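A reminder from the course coordinator: this example appears on the midterm review sheet, so study it carefully.

Given structure:
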């Protein structure tokens, strides 16, 4: 399925216009080598995709890696394809082994390192990867300086509490500094409390966009992991399997199966469509190791659920 003609969505209060499915770069340089990564990126772009998500930390956890491998792969792809202006690149600061935390000096140095690995002169969307005890005044000011220097177009926050998000927004507003335009929370059908509630309320109040990660719950919402199943060959199998032990896990799978059958699509498409239709959500993030894994993800960007189907999923996931 192609979504080449699918409309773009505006990312919060920014001037960034993005595809409603963000391609996760966490697998690049980890479970997908450069050749496989290029194939996935090519297929995503050919289908109209333009929103690629990475971090300076990806893929530091893999044997032999030091962090930044995903950015390097994406940078090599941009250079060989000559398509920089067509792609919205999101990356993050704060978790790299050699640049951890949100201190001003760390943010400045980490941004320069990301620009080098990506081979670009600006980052489109720059996230604080995980909040810490750095005063909001310090990191908000540091991010503003990057925007004023033309090195970053817009800024966003991942893994932040409602209170800290509100504090950062209030400080930026008061001082006339660059404000967050989006948040990237852990959010999916089997993990709703990680976003819904106070955080979602702050996001809506300030007109921010939501770009959820773990949109498919480490693969659980693809339907590959079933009660009594033998599992699948995946680096994420253990993370996905734990949802089967929760009462709502099998209930959500049953609801996904029902709706997927109605539309003749895969459960992953339904899970992404449900997420994409939630208030403030602009583009769920999902990753693919192979080109074959991409079509059901892209299908989720165009699938429209009926009110009854949405209600079924809401009830199963409550």
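Designed residues:
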């Amino acid at each position: 399925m192609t979504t080449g003609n699918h409309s773009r969505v505006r990312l919060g209060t920014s001037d960034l216009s993005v595809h409603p499915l963000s391609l996760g770069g966490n697998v690049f340089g980890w479970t997908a080598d450069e050749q496989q990564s290029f194939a996935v990126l090519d297929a995503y772009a050919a289908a109209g995709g333009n929103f690629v998500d990475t971090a300076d930390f990806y893929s530091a956890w893999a044997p032999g890696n030091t962090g930044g491998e995903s950015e390097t792969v994406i940078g090599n792809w941009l250079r060989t394809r000559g398509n920089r202006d067509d792609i919205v690149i999101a990356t993050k600061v704060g978790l790299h082994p050699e640049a951890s935390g949100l201190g001003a000096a760390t943010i400045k140095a980490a941004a320069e390192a990301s620009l080098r690995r990506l081979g670009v002169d600006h980052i489109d969307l720059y996230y604080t990867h995980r909040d810490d005890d750095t005063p909001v005044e310090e990191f908000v000011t540091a991010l503003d300086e990057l925007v004023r220097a033309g090195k970053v177009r817009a800024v966003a926050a991942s893994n932040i509490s409602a209170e800290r998000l509100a504090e950062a927004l209030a400080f930026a507003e008061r001082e006339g500094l660059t404000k967050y335009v989006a948040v990237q929370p852990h959010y999916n059908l089997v993990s709703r409390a990680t976003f819904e509630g106070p955080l979602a309320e702050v996001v809506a109040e300030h007109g921010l966009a939501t770009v959820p990660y773990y949109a498919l719950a480490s693969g659980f919402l693809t339907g590959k992991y079933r009660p009594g199943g033998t599992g699948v060959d995946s680096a994420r199998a253990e993370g996905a399997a734990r949802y089967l032990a929760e009462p709502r896990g099998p209930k959500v799978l049953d609801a996904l199966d029902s709706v997927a059958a109605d539309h003749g699509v895969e459960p992953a498409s339904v899970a992404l469509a449900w997420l994409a239709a939630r208030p403030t959500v602009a583009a769920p993030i999902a990753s693919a190791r192979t080109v074959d894994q991409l079509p059901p993800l892209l299908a989720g960007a165009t699938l429209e659920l009926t009110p009854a189907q949405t209600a079924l999923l809401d009830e199963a996931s409550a």
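The radius of gyration is 19 Å. Confidence is low (pLDDT under 50) at residues 1-5.
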